[in-house]
Amino acid sequence: MMIKRRMPSLLTASLLLAFTSFTVHADDDEHEGRARIPLLPKYQQECSACHVAYPPGMLPAASWQRLMNGLPKHFGTDASLDAATTKALSTWLTANAGSRSAPPQDRITQSSWFLHEHDEVPTRTWQRASIKSPANCAACHTRADQGDFNERFIRIPR
Amino acid sequence: MNNFHRSWRQPALRTGRVAGLVTGLLMALSAQAQTNTPAQLLSQYSQQAGTRPDASKGQQFFTSKHGREWACASCHRATPTGTGQHAATGRPIRPLAPGFNPERFTDAAKTEKWFRRNCNDVAGRECTAAEKADVLAWLLTLKP
Predict the structure, then answer these.
(1) Distance from CA of B2 to the nearest CA of A (A)
(2) Contacts of A80 in chain B (CB under 8 A)
(3) Distance of CA A54 to the CA centre of its chain
(4) Domain segments of chain A: what residues?
(5) So what's the pLDDT on residue B35?
(6) Residue A92 to residues A42, A64, B31, B131: CA-CA distances in angstroms?
(7) Quick one: fold of B38-141?
(8) How confident is the model over B3-55, as pLDDT tens digits?
């Protein structure tokens, strides 16, 4: 029973909790800072039909360039755009890209930060019909379409 | 969030009428580039095809596989009057039938873009004008 514990232990526990909160908060800021770049309307329009329009900071420039050069074969589908649009989006994505190293296959969901953030999600959960894929941010991140991935707004559907 | 929206809207009240007029004019001017109707697009595809559209052929085309993993129905559902789901990403897809989603087939360029891409995914080629006409004719038979 907490009441009967000595003060020093309570104090230590409180300090530990505060320190943990601080590091978790700093971690969120690092992601949230990037996620808050307002999306280019054309990017939102052209790149949110099949998945959330991912914040550009989630990939480095090299990844975005490879993706934009390979739109006809975009992770198994044809996502091609006219040349002018492709160029405009490439420029904007490159200018707002993140600085981490490129993930395997340029997949955001294979980034080490992504895997770390989601390491408590069982494989079975990704397979739910309401979710289907880790690429489907908006299934659980209820404000993903607004670029808000804050923990507070997560709701994991059945 | 609410306060932000209110303050954004209030200053516009005085100039609302002028803004509305200007917007209306701009929309009318851009209308030619963007706004079509499903019936108009159907007519164009039929003319290109040189055949009468066949809705039941359209339904068959839509719900069949064409030598590859997906059919149109894999994402849009066999009767696309409700929300579909992207077969790979799980993303919800708004209804394809114009009777259930008035935005559909109102922009020729957008329609052509999606036919080009999705026919490539489903059939490995462009859809013919006749196929597009058949599919659109069938979609137009779906009423609430």
Answers:
(1) 15
(2) 116-117
(3) 7
(4) 40-153
(5) 85
(6) 10, 10, 28, 37
(7) Cytochrome Bc1 Complex; Chain D, domain 2 (1.10.760)
(8) 444 444 444 455 666 655 655 555 555 444 568 999 999 999 999 999 999 99
